[in-house]
Amino acid sequence: MRTPSKREETRIMIGYVTLGTNDLPRAAAFYDALLAPLGIQRIMDFGTGYAWGSAMDKPALGIMKPYNKQPATAGNGTMVAIVVDTKAKVDEGYRRALALGGTDEGPAGPRGDSFYAGYFRDLDGNKLNFFCMTGQ
């Protein structure tokens, strides 16, 4: 296996992830309230969806009504992981998601020696988590 160059080390693999919704205003309100405490705000309006992020050249999370006009469904095995820098922020984000009407998929806590996460589903059934790396 070769060693990546400095330029390759700075590449970001994920540009954005989109999740489907059947109720755009409700989903937008959920993500506005969920992500605002992290300093994440809406950066795009597609008319049929929105994206949240810290900058256009950084990874983003989007919600959209499906392009094919069919009902949105949550993908089985699909999950979006939102990285934060402390366990307290994992706990806070997880609790906030549930307070906003999300459902529990695994309480915030350690998962192994150096991974801490809290899992939930949004109002459309999409699975997400807040996580941080610990003990490194």
What can you tell me about this protein's structure?
This protein is an alpha/beta fold. It is 21% helix and 35% strand. The protein is built from 3 helices and 8 strands. The protein has helices at 6-9, 24-35, 87-99, and strands spanning 16-20, 41-45, 49-53, 60-64, 79-83, 103-110, 115-121, 127-133. The strands form 2 sheets. The protein has a 4-stranded mixed β-sheet with strand order 1-4-3-2, with helices on one face. A hairpin with a 5-residue loop joins β7 and β8 (127-133). The model has no long low-confidence stretch (mean pLDDT 91).
Element layout with pairings:
Elements lengths: L5 H4 L6 E5 L3 H12 L5 E5 L3 E5 L6 E5 L14 E5 L3 H13 L3 E8 L4 E7 L5 E7 L3
Parallel strand pairs: 1-4, 5-8
Antiparallel strand pairs: 2-3, 3-4, 6-7, 7-8
The end-to-end span amounts to: 24 Å
| Average predicted confidence as pLDDT | 91
**What is the overall shape?**
globular
Strand content: 25-35%
Helix content: 10-25%
Computed Rg: 16 Å
Structural class: alpha/beta
Order of neighbouring strands in the sheet with most strands: 1-4-3-2
Number of strands: 8
Report the major sheet. Answer: 4 strands, mixed
Low-confidence segments, given as residue ranges, are: none
Instruction: Count up the helices.
Output: 3
What string, H for helix and E for strand, traces the elements in order? HEHEEEEHEEE
